[in-house]
Every structure is written in C-alpha cells, then in structure tokens.
Amino acid sequence: QWQLVESGGGLVQSGGSLRLSCVPSGFSLELHSVGWFRQAPGKESEGVSCISSNGLSSQYADSVKGRFTISRDIAKNTVTLQMNRLKTEDTGNYYCVAGFMDYNECPLTSHEKMHARGKGTLVTVSS
Q1: d(Cα 33, Cα 35) in Å, to the nearest integer?
Q2: Is-contact 21 78, C-beta < 8 A?
Q3: What are the tens digits of pLDDT across the range 57-80?
C-alpha cells in the first residue's frame, strides 16, 4: 500500500504560521515527486505546491507564492510545507500525494497519476 501520513495542521489566527509534514508509510519518498493539495468545504481540490524527485524544482499556486515554502529531506524521508502569513482563505484539508514523474516535474495541477495519497490534515485559519 502506498500510504502517506500528514501532520502539523491546526487552528491558527490570520497572519500566523504552520508547518505541515508528509511522511510515507512503508516506502521511501526518494525518486518520488510530491505535491500538496488542499480542499476547502464545498470547494474542489486545488494544488498548493509541489517538489520534484531531485528536489531541484518546485512550484506554487499563485495564491500562496511568497508565503509557502516546500522542501524535502531525503534522510528523514519527509516533505515539509512551511506556511507563513496564513489567510482565512487558506483554510482546508491539506493532503500530500506522491508518484513517479519526469526528473524535474512535480504534480501541481493534478494528482491523477500519483499512486500515493494521504488523508490529510486540517488547517483552520481564523480572522
């Protein structure tokens, strides 16, 4: 089973920060491209950020550029999403996905081809 486990969500005031982690269960993230998606209540899922398997390429949704930073630690087998200056519109269930893509690619717009996904961690930003 290709399972991912997210952590780090919670309730934070607008302007605050959270740090989300994505950890695989039973496999290595090495060679995997990883993406973070979020889904707000009543809305469709949207890509937030992603990082390529070699860690050299990352992408961000326009709505989070300059506020969120994605990184990966091969030794810790973890991908992290640092979220700063949070806004109420960042509220949602954040989940990570992983899969094999071309060397410098990562899943920002779609996770259809990803074979691993987590259930998510809830982020609530209050005004």
Answers
A1: 7
A2: yes
A3: 999 999 999 999 999 999 999 999
Paired residues of 59 in beta bridges: 50
DSSP 3-state percent helix, strand, coil across the chain (nearest 5): 0, 50, 50
Residue 46 burial by Cβ neighbours in a 10 Å radius (0-12, 13-18, 19+): middle
As a whole number of Å, the CA-based R_g of the chain is 13
Length of the chain, in residues: 127
Q: Which residues pair with 25 in a beta bridge?
A: 3
* Phi, psi (rounded to 5 degrees) for 83: -115, 115
- Rounded Cα distance between 37 and 49, Å, is 7
Q: How far is the CA of 126 from the CAs of 12, 76, 86, 89, in angstroms?
A: 6, 32, 9, 9
